[in-house]
């Protein structure tokens, strides 16, 4: 069903507003207006993604490695500066490609190809939260299987996912490892966010916010601290994934691993290690 062009302009106006917020401080308005809208959006996403990566990474590292030294992680388990700088280097090489995905998704939304809606007031609050829940379930399902296939299909692992799995011990994992992927690997694992747009109605700004929350979440699950909050797929579970390579493929929760038989609990792992 065709979407009214006047309605679609609401999406364009909103993305243009975000573009001006980020880019007006860097470029004079006459130069900014010369850039195509798609390029403006990509530049905004690139700058916002880079800032989010560094701010979340540095703040989290400062908290767990300095303010809470020996509380969460012993000194000898802290990653070296060399390891963290390598993770930053890999992430920053991939960042231009990572941020192309939300730019393309915004283009598809502006073109009326998705089920996104512009204002929360268009639906009830009940439907708003139900749509978020369904969206997240679809994303969780998609990321689980995308991640699992990146391990099970050997060429995908060798040429893409192995870049991330060089960080396979506690003293090499850090919040900065969260986005240290081969560019195509990072895009593939975020694609379920875009696919879900064609299946479930979702509020536009909420979709963008959830996509960028990935940067904060991936920093969290690479800090090696087991939060033990059921059913959250915390860092304790994900650290096991980095050491065994065949467990805990999930993203936000443990449900997919539980349903498909790949779950391994960090507390049971500790018990097994003590028994040995």
TrEMBL record:
<keyword id="KW-1133">Transmembrane helix</keyword>
<keyword id="KW-0472">Membrane</keyword>
<dbReference type="InterPro" id="IPR006694">
    <property type="entry name" value="Fatty_acid_hydroxylase"/>
</dbReference>
<feature type="transmembrane region" description="Helical">
    <location>
        <begin position="125"/>
        <end position="146"/>
    </location>
</feature>
<comment type="similarity">
    <text>Belongs to the sterol desaturase family.</text>
</comment>
<dbReference type="Pfam" id="PF04116">
    <property type="entry name" value="FA_hydroxylase"/>
</dbReference>
<protein>
    <recommendedName>
        <fullName>Fatty acid hydroxylase domain-containing protein</fullName>
    </recommendedName>
</protein>
<feature type="transmembrane region" description="Helical">
    <location>
        <begin position="46"/>
        <end position="66"/>
    </location>
</feature>
<dbReference type="InterPro" id="IPR050307">
    <property type="entry name" value="Sterol_Desaturase_Related"/>
</dbReference>
<keyword id="KW-0812">Transmembrane</keyword>
<dbReference type="GO" id="GO:0016020">
    <property type="term" value="C:membrane"/>
</dbReference>
<feature type="domain" description="Fatty acid hydroxylase">
    <location>
        <begin position="133"/>
        <end position="262"/>
    </location>
</feature>
């Amino acid at each position: 069903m065709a979407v009214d062009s006047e309605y679609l302009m609401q999406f364009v106006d909103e993305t243009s507003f975000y573009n001006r917020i980020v880019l007006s401080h860097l470029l004079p308005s006459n130069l900014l207006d010369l850039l195509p809208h798609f390029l403006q959006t990509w530049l905004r996403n690139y700058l916002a993604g880079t800032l989010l990566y560094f701010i979340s990474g540095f703040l989290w590292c400062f908290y767990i490695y300095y303010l809470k030294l020996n509380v969460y992680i012993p000194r000898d388990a802290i990653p070296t500066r060399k390891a963290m700088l390598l993770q930053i280097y890999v992430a920053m090489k991939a960042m231009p490609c990572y941020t192309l995905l939300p730019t393309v998704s915004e283009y598809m939304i502006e073109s009326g190809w998705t089920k996104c809606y512009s204002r929360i007031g268009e639906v009830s609050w009940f439907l708003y939260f139900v749509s978020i829940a369904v969206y997240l379930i679809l994303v969780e399902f998609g990321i689980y299987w995308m991640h699992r296939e990146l391990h099970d299909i050997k060429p995908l692992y060798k040429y893409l996912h192995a870049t991330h799995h060089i960080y396979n011990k506690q003293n090499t994992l850090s919040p900065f490892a969260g986005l240290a992927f081969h560019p195509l690997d990072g895009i593939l694992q975020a694609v379920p966010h875009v696919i879900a747009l064609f299946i479930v109605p979702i509020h536009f700004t909420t979709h963008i916010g959830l996509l960028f929350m990935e940067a904060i979440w991936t920093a969290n699950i690479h800090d090696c601290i087991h939060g033990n909050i059921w059913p959250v797929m915390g860092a304790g579970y994900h650290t096991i994934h980095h050491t065994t390579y065949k467990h805990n493929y999930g993203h936000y929760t443990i449900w997919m691993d539980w349903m498909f038989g790949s779950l391994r609990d960090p507390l049971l792992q500790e018990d097994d290690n003590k028994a040995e």
